[in-house]
Amino acid sequence: MINKMTFMEIRTKKILFICLFSLISFSLVIANDGDERTGQAGASELLINPWSQSSGMAGANTAGVRGLESAFLNVAGLTGIEGTELIFSHASWFADISINAFGFGQKVGDDGVMALTIMSLDFGDIERTTYENPDGGIGTYSAQFMNIALS
């Protein structure tokens, strides 16, 4: 009876492994079914570091940044917050894009930290164009992104 149970367990594990492997392989094939978005990335605004000190070093201090500024680079650096930290930032970026950022960090207990960061990108007024009217002249629209993170 023991040998029969062992055989059944091994057989069940093999079947489960084959099913799981097939499911993962099939989902990878389905996920890469079209060429219309090949080479594109989504949510690239999440890669923008809004804090001036760490951004000025071009990310070279990723492992060493401490305090609230580490929320975008290395979340483990939040342990450098000793009490309460508050950060504001405004930057004029490329082509009339402005970045506004706010951060709040608080030490919780002896070895816990909680942080809230908000980053907003304002793209200004963009000329509205259509296929029939590629030169514009039909008005403008304004686009914004907002990222809210709780760590």
Distance between the termini: 53 Å
Order of helices and strands: HHEEEE
For the biggest sheet, the summary is:
4 strands, antiparallel
| Strand runs, count | 4
The number of helical segments is 2
Tell me the overall shape.
Answer: flat
Estimate the strand proportion: 25-35%
Q: Which runs of at least 5 residues are low in confidence (pLDDT < 50)?
A: none
Side-by-side strand order of the widest sheet:
1-2-3-4
Helix content range of the residues, please?
10-25%
Q: What does the average pLDDT come to? A: 83
What is the radius of gyration? 25 Å
SS class: alpha+beta
Describe the protein's architecture and organization.
With 151 residues, this protein is an alpha+beta fold. The chain contains two helices and four strands; from the N terminus they run H-H-E-E-E-E. A four-stranded antiparallel sheet has the order 1-2-3-4, with no helix packed on it. The chain is flat, with a radius of gyration of 25 Å. The mean pLDDT is 83.
Outline the fold blueprint.
Layout: H1 2-31, H2 52-56, E1 84-92, E2 98-108, E3 112-127, E4 140-150
Antiparallel strand pairs: 1-2, 2-3, 3-4
